[in-house]
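Appendix B, Record 12. Input sequence as logged:
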Amino acid sequence: MTESPPLAMKSAENYIELLLNKTKNNRSLALTIFIKLFAELPAQLVEISTAIKLQQLTTAKDITHMLHGSVSFCGLMDLQEPAKNLEISLLNNDQKTAQQHLNELKLSIAQFLSQQQAILTLLS
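Logged structural output:
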């Protein structure tokens, strides 16, 4: 039996299609949401990382919950899963597992952000 391959990184077109479906093909709204995500996600990661390092788990939980809600609303499943896992580990006060899930979330968000210019170009 062979192992399943790792999930492939989504392309800019995949992300755009997901958000256009959510916005009923409103390109302007999709662009606005992408711009907001591109600004907020990196800032939220920094805030979560800092809160975990300072053992301020309530703050980390709150920010993770907001991030998880945003990516879930937008249908960004490749970001939603690691955000959910991080949120669960924080709810369980499991700092070691939380750090592992944070690293997974950072990677997923970095992959999403690597598509930023292509997304903005295609939607503009």
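The radius of gyration is 15 Å.
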